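Marked as duplicate of an earlier ticket. Keeping the data here for the record.
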Amino acid sequence: MTAHDTPTSADMTITAQALTEFCDDYLSASAFKDYAPNGLQVDGGRPLRRIVTGVTACEALIDAAIAEDADAIMVHHGYFWKGEPMTITGMKGQRIRKLMQHGISLIGYHLPLDAHPKIGNNAKLAEMLGLTITEALYPHESHPVGNIATCPPQSAESLTQTITQALGRIPLHISGHYQYLADEAADTAAPKLLKRIGICTGGAQDMIEQAAAMGCDAYISGEISERTTHSARELGIDYFACGHHATERAGIQALGDIVAQQFGLSVRFIDIDNPA
């Protein structure tokens, strides 16, 4: 577990509703049709002075927030996803019970935190990798959750090294130049240089077809499915699976920094390790 503190005044407080209103406006949350509610998901019922941020509102993060005497948790992956059981039982019930018992509010932002052009997961990942976002992966979207970026022409090996240094993990790279040959001819082709990169963090591996249609040389996301390998090879586009969790740490950290600066609250990012 790693953590990062933002220096703040211990005397400042804000209501969960007021903080949510600020974040809703900053992230343009109402502009998104999402898979879960954005904003205040669990109201702990007390003023907020100390906040913990993290990627996912798992029980380990809740326990860490309790240990920090936090009044609220802000996350990218909260609760009440479409398609999940509506009852507050089992694992979800246990998590929410801990929040309520300790008066901890839960605030979550999903797609709005992916898409924000300054502090969003895509924007921050592009910044970390030295990529310059130039357009939307889906041009018709007013608040795109996927982007296209450019960079100086580089090999897949070079981009792999950059990702590894930025995220602290080696990405799984699928080459778009796959050939099934029984001789040495497969090794004679000139290496492909990557300069137009599609990017969408998290579980957006199926956007690889859109990235190929938009003329990208490579596509970066978090997860990989069995079908993604075949898609990359048959579409001729390199794919980098960098980890769902790893690609979505920066956005919530940046939002926490904004909140700390705006309201003078104590904000601490806690990273619950997740290899997926």
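See parent ticket for discussion. DSSP finds ten helices and twelve strands in the chain.
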